[in-house]
Amino acid sequence: MADALFGIVVGSDIHRAMIGPVVVAPAAFKGALSAAEAARAIAAGLQLAATGVEVRVVPVADGGEGTLDALVAARKGRRRATTVADPLGRLIEAPIGELPGHTCVVELAQASGYERLAVHERDPERTSTYGTGQQIRMAVDLGAERIIIGLGGSATNDGAMGLARALGIRFLDAHGQELLGCGADLIRVDRVDLSGRDPRLEGLEILVACDVTNPLIGPEGAAHVFGPQKGADASAVARLDAGLAHFARVVELAVGIDISTVPGAGAAGGAAGGILALLGGALTAGAPLVLDAAGLDDQLAGAELCITGEGRLDAQSMSGKAVSAVAHAAQTANVPCVAVCGSLELLPGMVRRMGLAAAFPINRRLAAEPDALVATETNLAAMGAALAGLWVRAQGARSDGAYGD
Question: Which tens digit of pLDDT belongs to each residue from 145-159?
């Protein structure tokens, strides 16, 4: 396992690694393993090399794809199958998460994600979040008093019109005809009819996990920044942006909230803004929300080391992503934190600024990306074992007085 020990070590805290309980809190290694699978692999390596070590597994996410699985695993919840509409209205199976404490998790990508569509089907003027609204309704049917909605990976740019329709809100054109709620309908909305809004939304706590701060409209807005990756060409981007601006004005007339000025309202094609105004949702940073729901602070209590990680550790990891949030929580708890990753693209100073004691890439030999992805589980286990080896060496050095009293 020694060949796995390479990377960036930027502090003296690493010698304290794994003296007592270890918290393993990785995000997903996209394209390879879920957060829960990554955590199990690291834990297996730790326990193989250090029999009896207490490992506290806390899979994490930042509110985007993987949030449902991470929270279900961390809170010992369960997945519930639902049959809902995909972004083009076809029936699909898509799960929601049910957690202890009357809490449900709805991940927008499950029903309304771009991965539900073939490349040639991706068109944010045609797609809708209706299926995600059906999932929210089903969560309420289960008795949820709190719903966590993870945004990210959406195929939509409908301002949550489709989602709201599934919960009884109607969007009418100038002739009084109800609109279906796809991206192309944004510009056609003349009036919002709230009379049929599901009354159970009153008193329901809806937390919307956002990992971006993009506004609803403009050069940094939903259509311009995210529209092209969902299949919109330049002319479609312009129409969608104009549609969102018009939609925001109509919504403000209906509920008195101007979502065009709210940071983060542009997340998931404006779904964040629509949920805020029409359902009473609260927008919050995704990673801290998920970490709090997963109980990370409780797991860090009394721990001696925290291991986090993700597929690629780069500049984006430093702002609002799960690994950065884990490192901050560990630093607050005075627990050294080490990151493992498939690809390490940070300089030592950047690693330190994230609050990490060390960062290690797990690929022990040069390999093409497809081969590296296949080997992720094995390499994570090897890295866990290698870190356990550091612990054994540190224990021996301590007993010999190498680190002083």
Answer: 999 999 989 999 999
CA dist., res. 369 & res. 388, Å (int): 27
From-to residues of CATH 3.90.1510.10 in the chain: 67-287
Question: What gap in Å lies between CA 306 and CA 21, rounded to an integer?
Answer: 9
Q: How far apart are the first and last CA of the chain?
A: 30
CA distance 239 to 136: 29
**Segment 170-186, tens digit of pLDDT:** 999 999 999 999 999 99
Measured in degrees and rounded to the nearest 5, phi and psi for residue 310 equal -160, 175
Give the burial class of 100: count Cβ atoms within 10 A of its Cβ; 0-12 exposed, 13-18 middle, 19 or more buried: exposed
**Structural class in CATH, domain 67-287:** alpha beta
* Rounded-to-integer distance, Cα 276 and Cα 96, Å: 20
List CB contacts of 150: < 8 A, sequence separation 6 or more: 61, 63, 64, 65, 67, 68, 105, 106, 107, 108, 109, 209, 286, 290
Q: Where in the chain is the domain with CATH 3.40.50.10350?
A: 2-58+300-399
Q: Which neighbouring-strand residues pair with 52?
A: none
The tokens for 55 are 């490992």
- Relative to beta strand 282-285, strand 170-172 is unpaired
Give the Cα separation of 97 and 80 in Å (integer): 6
CB-based contact 19:395 (threshold 8 Å): yes
Using alpha carbons, select from 41, 34, 24, 8 the residue that is nearest to residue 379. Answer: 41
Q: What percent of the chain has pLDDT over 70?
A: 88
Bridge partner list, 340: 309, 360
CB 313 within 8 A of CB 323: yes
The confidence band for 403, taking pLDDT boundaries of 50, 70 and 90, is very low
Q: What is the pTM of this model?
A: 0.83
The predicted-structure confidence for 2-18, as pLDDT tens digits, reads as follows 333 345 544 444 444 44
- Comparing CA positions, the residue from 61, 19, 27, 23 lying closest to residue 43 is 23
Chain centroid to CA 35? 11
CATH number given to 2-58+300-399: 3.40.50.10350
Residue 397 pLDDT = 52
The tokens for 145 are: 């008093």
